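Q: I'm writing a short explainer about UbiD family decarboxylase for a general audience and would like to include a description of its predicted shape. Could you first generate the structure from this sequence?
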Amino acid sequence: MAFKDLRDYIEFMRKRNKLIEINEEVSVDLEIAEITRRATYNHLPPLLFNKIVNFEGWRVISNIFYSIESFYEIFGTNRLESISEKFISNLSEIPITFIDKLKSLKDIIGLGKIMPRARSPNFKEDYFMNLAKLPAIKTWPKDAGRYLTFSITITKDPDTDIHNLSVYRIQIINEKEAIVHWQAFKRGSITARKYLEKNITKIPVAIVTGVDPVIAFTAASPVPHGLDKYMFAGILRGEGVDVTKLDNQILVPSHAEVVLEGYVDLNDMRLEGPFGDHMGYYTPPDYYPTFKLERVYIRDEPIFHVTSVGKPPLEDAWIGKAVERIFLPFAKMLVPELVDMNLPEYGLFTGIGIFSIKKYYPGQAKRVMMALWGIGQLSLLKIIIIVDQDINVHDINQVMYAIAAHVDPKRDIVIIDNALTDSLDPSVPSPPLGSKLGIDATRKFKEEMGKEWPEEVKSDEKIAKKAEQILSKIIKKYQSS
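A: Of course. Here's the predicted structure. Afterward I'll give you a sentence or two in plain language.
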């Protein structure tokens, strides 16, 4: 199903009695963030704050992605892989590269219905609104100020017109200026460098808040470079996103609650932070470019979308789990021997990844590690663990067994130094460069081990069947007593 906008989703959740409306007055200064975190830890559904201190007329929604169950509701299925599997099935007969397939979808298989559609906006310009009047929140006591925490920064590639939608934290400085925390390897920053190569230092940008949750999820997802995120949102929605072109030529969702039009000035770098991030630590201050506001558009009775970050599992952890499921079929296209993957919610999404493979030849696990470290957001993984296909990657005990029984540290551990890592990782001495660890926890071929792998113990089938019959009677009798 596809939601028209954020309000359509809110009404959907209200009808399911899965919307918590809070009518007590709350402050954007720490209170909303604290309530949201506690709600997420307790797997409570979305929170709609109806009375915001000093922000009359605004409502704030948080905790939309409150657990993996939230994605089952949003996408109408508890098997998220099926969304991308259905899409990929349309490409299976086309003998071209993966990226070429993605770039030429509209022409190849007539997927015009998933492309963005020009529509009249639901928002209108507000000449009196500015950044200081937005109910942006302060998340942790030592944060540098109030931040946009789930607003979407939209840029357009100057060469291809491909639009990128990404979620970056944005620190409000004053009525007209804010600092955009886009790291060097993020798509917004890469797009900015393309403008800089053309001697353009003022990058046209739109920042939107309050969109349908599929668009919000897409913005937070590691969609491959070169693929328009509006088109990817159309793939997930099953229909195109309604968009409106701003004066700066950026397309924005027509039903967004808030639209900030302006530009990012690459010549105006400001000290951003500290900010308590998803790692559970304060990110030290660093220099990032400044957004300069030119126009504000809002809907009547606007709803502002925020999230609260901190130690897992919070909303970003569940977004990571949904990414894991939806992007698994794409990863299998690039790494055919891949069977399953687990990005554990306590593994901080870019911290630990566990992957199972069909192993056919010696050295394959290390080859897969290198391939995975070359794929989009997976390139940031600090630790990769490879196991055999019969190991359930979602059962940490099975994974621990595989490591304990299959790994010789000298032979099976790979350490890569001076590699790209998540710059928010507090353990990295010189971000964004750090080290990576690969663990080959597969059973070894003779070429890898120098001798044959030992035979696994297996029960005698007849004895096992008899034992099961006897034991089932004992259990039944025991439980009834």
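A: For your explainer, you could say: The first strand starts at residue 20 and ends at 22.
Q: Perfect, that's easy to follow.
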